[in-house]
User: Which sequence fits this backbone?
C-alpha cells in the first residue's frame, strides 16, 4: 500500500517530471530485559530479535505461532560500496571490521511462523512490504495479512479513538509464514552511523537493499528450500517486479509467486503531464465507477451494476477517448463535443467542463469537482470516501485525502501499542509509517518514468514456474484498475507465460483489505493462487516432441 499524503504525492509527481534477520532469537518463555529496553542499542549493533508465542482462533480452529520482531544488519563487502556510498580511505580503514564487512543499515522486520511444522521446506514463506516510496509495512501488516488487525468498520471507516486491535479472521498465516519488511528509513529501520540515508533512496538502491534482506533472512532461517513469494502494494509492486529479476540474477533465488496489490509498474500511467495521454485514459473508468458509487450518473447507468459501468467505461476509454486524445487539436469542434458528451455521461462532469479542459481532467480536478455542489471532496486512496472541503465552492485541489484520514490514526496507534505490548519490542525511535525519502532516485527506466514491468517480463520468461497475481480495485484512484490492466497487457508475454498471470477486481479502494467483503475474498483468492504457485508440473523444455 502506498499511504502517501496528497501534498507528498504531488511532490513526488513533480520530482518524476523533473527526471523527463539476525542472530539467535529469544525463547518464548524469556522476557526482555526491561532495563536494557529503555535505551536503543548502538545503530551498528544487531541485537537478538524478540520472539513471543501466540495463538489465534480461525473459524473454530486454534493455531499456534511465534512472532519475531527485530533487526537484520545489512553489511557490504569492503571495496564493494553500494551506489551513493562515500568516504575517504582513512574513514574506510577506521570502519573496517574483522570479517571485512561494513555495517550499512539496520532493517526492522516482524515475522510470523506457524508452530508444529514438521517439514519447513514445504511451508511457504511470504515477504511482505508496502510502497510510498517511504511507507512502512504497517498497512498490509495490521490491515489484512497478520493474525491481528486494526479494528475498523466493515466498510473500512475509522472508529472513534482510542483505537484497538482485534483478531484477523482473514489472516494468511494458516497458509504461509509471513515476514513484514520495513525498508531503510521507514518503520524503525535506519542507516548506521555516518551512513547517508540517501544511498538507499532510489529504485535500484531500494531493490538491492530489500533483496539483500531477503537473501540474508532466507539463509539464516534455513528457508532456501521453502516455496517463496513476494507480496507488495502500490510502490511495493514496483519494488516486487524489480526484485523478481534482481533476486534471480544476483542470488539465484527463484520465486514461486508474486502478489501485486494495487499495482503500478510503469509510473507513466499515473503521471499527468503534457503530451502524456496514458493517465487520462487509465483513470477514466475509475472516474466512472466512482460517479456511479456516489449516485451521480444518469438513471440508465445508475441502474446497472458497477461491473457493467466499468466495462462500458473501459470500452469508451480504450477506443473513442484514446483515439480522440491522439488526434488532439486535429479534432473538429463537432467531434470534440461528441467525445465530451461521452465523457460527461460517464462521469457526470458537465460537457462544457470537459471542453474547457481540452478533454483532459486530471485526478486532482476530479477529486474536487464530482461532489463540489455538496461541499465535499473525494478520497484518493479510496474514492468511496468523501470529506468536507476546506474551501467549498473553490477550485482548490491540494487539500487532504479523506480516505487517508480513515486509516492513519487507527493503524499508527494500533502498531505502536502492539509492537511493545504484544511483541515485547521496545524502542524510543518513532515508528515512521510514512517517511520523507525525497529526493527518490528513479533512474532512467521507461524513458524518464520508473518502470519495472520489463524486469517482471524477463523474470517470468526465464522462470516458467513464476506465478503472478495482480489485484485491482474499482475505487482506487491512486493506482487505478484500468491503468494497471493496460500496463500488464503491454508486457508482451509469450502466451504460455501469460497463463501464469491472473488479474482480480475488487469493489474496494487502494487498501482493499480494509473493506471486509473484499478482505474475505482476498484471502480466498490467495488460497487458490498459492495452491497454483506451489503445486506445478515440470515444464518440459529439453524433452523431444
Assistant:
Amino acid at each position: 500500500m502506498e499511504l502517501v499524503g496528497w501534498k507528498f504525492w504531488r511532490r513526488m509527481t513533480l520530482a518524476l517530471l523533473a527526471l523527463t534477520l539476525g542472530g539467535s532469537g529469544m525463547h518464548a518463555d524469556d522476557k526482555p530485559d526491561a532495563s536494557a529496553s529503555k535505551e536503543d542499542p548502538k545503530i551498528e549493533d544487531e541485537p537478538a530479535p524478540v520472539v513471543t508465542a501466540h495463538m489465534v482462533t480461525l473459524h473454530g480452529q486454534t493455531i499456534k505461532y511465534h512472532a519475531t520482531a527485530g533487526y537484520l544488519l545489512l553489511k557490504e563487502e569492503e571495496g564493494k560500496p553500494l551506489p551513493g556510498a562515500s568516504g575517504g580511505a582513512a574513514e574506510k580503514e577506521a570502519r573496517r571490521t574483522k570479517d571485512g564487512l561494513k555495517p550499512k543499515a539496520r532493517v526492522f522486520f516482524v515475522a510470523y511462523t506457524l508452530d508444529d511444522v514438521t517439514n519447513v521446506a514445504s511451508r511457504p514463506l511470504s515477504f511482505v512490504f508496502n510502497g510510498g516510496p517511504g511507507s512502512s509495512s504497517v498497512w498490509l501488516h495490521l490491515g489484512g495479512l497478520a493474525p491481528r488487525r486494526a479494528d475498523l468498520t466493515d466498510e473500512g471507516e475509522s472508529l472513534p479513538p482510542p483505537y484497538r486491535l482485534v483478531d484477523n479472521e482473514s489472516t494468511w498465516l494458516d497458509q504461509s509464514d509471513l515476514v513484514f519488511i520495513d525498508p531503510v528509513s521507514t518503520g524503525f529501520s535506519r542507516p548506521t552511523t555516518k551512513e547517508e540515508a540517501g544511498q538507499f533512496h532510489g529504485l535500484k538502491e531500494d531493490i538491492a537493499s530489500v533483496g539483500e534482506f531477503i537473501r540474508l533472512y532466507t539463509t539464516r532461517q534455513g528457508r532456501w528450500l521453502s516455496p517463496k513469494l513476494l507480496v507488495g502494494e502500490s510502490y511495493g509492486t514496483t519494488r516486487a517486479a524489480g526484485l523478481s529479476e534482481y533476486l534471480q540474477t544476483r542470488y539465484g533465488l527463484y520465486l514461486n509467486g508474486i502478489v501485486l496489490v494495487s499495482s503500478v509498474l510503469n509510473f507513466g500511467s499515473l503521471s499527468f503531464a503534457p503530451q502524456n495521454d496514458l493517465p487520462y485514459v487509465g483513470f477514466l473508468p475509475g472516474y466512472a465507477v466512482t460517479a456511479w458509487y456516489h449516485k451521480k450518473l444518469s438513471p440508465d447507468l445508475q441502474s446497472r451494476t458497477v461491473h457493467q459501468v466499468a466495462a462500458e467505461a473501459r470500452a469508451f476509454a480504450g477506443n473513442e477517448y484514446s483515439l480522440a486524445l491522439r488526434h488532439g487539436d486535429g479534432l473538429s469542434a463537432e467531434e470534440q463535443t461528441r467525445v465530451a458528451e461521452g465523457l460527461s455521461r460517464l462521469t457526470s462532469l458537465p460537457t462544457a467542463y470537459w471542453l474547457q479542459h481540452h478533454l483532459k481532467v486530471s485526478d486532482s480536478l476530479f477529486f474536487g469537482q464530482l461532489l463540489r455542489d455538496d461541499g465535499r471532496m473525494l478520497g484518493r486512496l479510496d474514492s468511496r470516501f468523501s470529506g468536507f472541503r476546506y474551501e467549498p465552492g473553490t477550485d482548490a485541489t491540494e487539500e487532504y485525502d479523506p480516505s487517508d484520514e480513515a486509516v492513519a490514526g487507527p493503524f499508527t496507534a494500533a502498531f505502536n501499542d502492539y509492537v511493545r505490548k504484544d511483541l515485547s519490542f521496545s524502542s524510543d525511535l518513532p515508528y515512521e509509517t510514512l517517511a520523507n525519502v525525497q529526493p527518490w532516485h528513479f533512474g532512467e527506466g521507461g524513458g524518464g518514468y520508473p518502470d519495472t514491468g520489463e524486469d517482471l517480463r524477463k523474470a517470468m520468461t526465464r522462470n516458467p514456474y513464476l506465478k503472478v497475481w495482480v489485484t485491482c480495485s474499482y475505487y482506487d484512484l491512486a493506482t487505478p484498475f484500468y491503468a494497471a490492466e493496460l500496463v500488464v497487457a503491454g508486457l508482451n508475454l509469450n502466451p504460455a507465460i501469460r497463463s501464469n498471470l491472473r488479474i482480480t477486481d475488487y469493489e474496494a479502494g487502494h487498501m482493499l483489505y480494509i473493506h471486509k467483503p473484499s478482505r474475505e475474498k482476498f484471502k480466498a483468492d490467495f488460497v487458490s493462487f498459492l495452491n497454483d504457485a506451489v503445486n506445478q508440473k515440470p515444464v518440459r523444455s529439453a524433452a523431444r516432441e
Summary: The mean pLDDT is 89.
